[in-house]
Amino acid sequence: MKRRHFNQCLALSAASAFLGKISVHAQAESWCPKLTSTVQFTGRKLEWFTHGTKPEWGAKDPAQKDTFAILHPKTGTPKGRPLYVVLHSAGHSVQSCLECTKTKGNHDIYHAPDDFCALYVDCAANRGTDWWWGALSAREMPNEQNAEKAGFELSPCEKRVMDTVNWTIQTYGIDPNRVYLCGNSMGGSGTLGLGLRHGNVFAAIKANVPAGIMHAASRMGWINEKGEAVPTEKIPFEKLSEPPICVDYSGTNDSWSFRHELLFDAMKRCRYPMIAYWGNYGHANNTEKICQVNDLIESFDWLSIRKNEAYPVFTNADCDTKVPWPNAEKSEEPGQINAFFRWQVRSDSANSLEMDLWIISNEELKSKIFQVPSRAKADVSPRRLQNLRFHPNQNVSWRFGSQSGTAKTDAQGLLTLRDLTLTNEKQTLKIWK
Fold first, then answer.
1. Domain boundaries in the chain?
2. pLDDT of 46-85, one tens digit each?
3. 407 CB-contact burial (10 Å; exposed 0-12 / middle 13-18 / buried 19+)
4. Is the Cβ–Cβ distance between 312 and 429 less than 8 Å?
5. CA torsion, points 40, 41, 45, 48, in degrees to nearest 10?
6. What is the CATH code of the structural domain delimited by 33-308?
7. C-alpha angle 350-356-357 in degrees, rounded to nearest 5
8. Dihedral (Cα; 205, 208, 213, 217), 10-degree rounding
9. Which end of the chain is more exposed for a tag (fewer CB within 10 A), N or C?
10. Angle formed by the axes of helices 186-197 and 156-172, to 10°?
């Protein structure tokens, strides 16, 4: 196993030399984590790696050492499998994070599906240099002292994590269209910040009671240097990739949900894909207990999303619950955004896109808390189109059930169809130039 990784590192170095890259880049390409141990863990193969830094990360301590773990599928090899990436909370390390997975109900978001390969990264060993996954913590506001963690640019910690994810994909032959990011608390904050920024890597992300949204707000350009929300037209969309499907669930009586209204507002303004659940379950990590308050938490199969497939963004749906933040602690009712909508892509060609849209049925959802509507109106914005391309301010034809017409794309080339009526019956949305 060690020889396999060593040979791969040699191949990367040789490729760098062949391409004539400058010495700094050649040094970066030769970065290779060291396999330190292989053990059996919960009936699966678990590999531990350590590594140093890359010059381009700009680490405060260039001699810093970090650890990560690769958990293999229960049967078979990682090749061609999806990847489950886990960011731990402030109370954990990569080691204790994995220990949680031995017990059902103990931080369930950390538990990787049996048929997935999983990557567990660390943010505890070098707490003094790259804490909170390299970004602003929950209640931390941008100022002169923390300028290196605020703003649009990625921090050394974020670069380390993303390079580790990419190294894992390449080394193990992971399916690049099925890479998922998740986390709890501080890891939930990191999931929003790292995940939303890297839709070119992650198919979908899931944040369990994220401890603040300042990480995402900074890296997505939603706030200025004073922490104030910026107008939509000032967000640097040209520097951002198509975002992944985002699933977020937070406690209304959880002080760590600070400024969650900023997340909801920005995702809606930018027409980014969001499915959200909330309730007064506090800073919980046990899925069964959370579901006693809001039983929709596990209702959407986020691990079936593929990065190479288009998806619809639903906004302004008349079946959404009113967002309780910023005064969420006064709310006792559970709620949701976009929890009832489903879709399936039929075709995605250079000339047109077709996808089925519908509302999930009560029988299928089996919720004891929510009543699923049989009909709802929402704005729909198709995103992550694979073949069909639109220019800014372009006229587009569309048809959805008995509704049809033409619409114009916005300044970013994004198409939004207003007030589509969805029902429990599948209807095909077709758009074409």
1. 33-308, 341-433
2. 999 999 999 999 999 999 999 999 999 999 999 999 999 9
3. middle
4. yes
5. -100
6. 3.40.50.1820
7. 125
8. 0
9. N
10. 70
